[in-house]
Amino acid sequence: MRIHDALRMSSIPPPEAEVLLSTALGKDRTWLIAHGEDDLPADKQAAFQAFVSRRRRGEPVAYIMGVQEFFGRPFSVNPHVLIPRPSTEGLVSLAMDILRVPHDETQEIDRGIVAVAKMLKQHIRATIVADIGTGSGCIAGTLACEMPDLRVMAVDLSKEALEVASENARRLKVADRIRFMQGNLLEPLRQISEPFLVVSNPPYIPEGHTLPRDVAGFEPAGALFAGKDGLSVLQMLMKQARRHPFCIGVVLECQEDQVSALLE
Ligand code: GLN
Could you tell me if the CB of 234 is within 6 A of ligand 1? Predict the structure, then answer.
């Protein structure tokens, strides 16, 4: 079978088929497009077929590949962590603005999704960020790469997620500036006595909300859902941030219709 026949017969969207086949071949997409007439060796065809079957059952391409690009860098992912979303790149950009010049701001980063910055102490800048619910570590790792003087504390409840996040930090060569801590929200940070900014993409989807099959069937529910109105984690996080004497503010991802309940 030739390469372009294999792509055509896969019956999944062409861009996805191209990513899966180039990975099975260990080549990039440009090579694949240029070599459509080449014969596909039987072992590579079998590897591609296995990927395609997983995709047809709804498994996200990022889990099949084990990687997702975020802010131009590759992050390893597995089903213990949420797949980094383009919207969260907007959260990271706002966090960088806030670290440079602290201020309140709400920005739409996707349809109905916002990044909210709320300062809790005035006239103090932070050189430490706490990424709460770090998952793959995409926020912590990106901020550490983009801001070479920044130190990051990356917190997650899940030991498996912290393993993924620390592996990503090692690969990006920023592990020396990120401290990984297992625990709930700000609880592992009780002893911190330097000003820090919370940056978080917490679970904020209302329980019972119907999500696409790829998301609902494969991504960790604990990273997505937060109570009846999706506010339970956000509100707890906000409460702990307000109480912490060294938390200068928060930059949070949430639904637009959750902002007023969060800031009241
Ligand atoms: N911080 C990670 C991300 O933004 C994980 C978020 C989560 O699990 N809710 O992708």
Answer: no
Shared domain for 128 and 26, answered yes or no, is no
Give me the domain span that covers residue 47.
3-57
Is 256 found in the same domain as 163? yes
Q: What is the mean pLDDT of each run of 10 residues along the chain (264 residues)?
A: 93 94 92 93 95 96 96 98 98 97 97 98 92 98 97 98 98 98 98 97 96 94 94 98 97 97 90
Looking at the 3D structure of the chain, how many domains does it have? 2
* Residue 32 three-state SS: helix
In the numeric block, which tokens belong to residue 129? 């960020």
CA distance 255 to 110: 9
Cα 9 to ligand 1 centre (Å):
35
Q: What is the pTM of this model?
A: 0.95
Given the CA of residue 84, which atom of ligand 1 is nearest to it? 10
Phi-psi region of 194 (alpha: psi -120 to 50; beta: other; left: phi over 0): beta
State residue 216 phi and psi, 5-degree precision: -60, -40
CA-to-CA distance for 264 and 260, rounded, in angstroms? 6
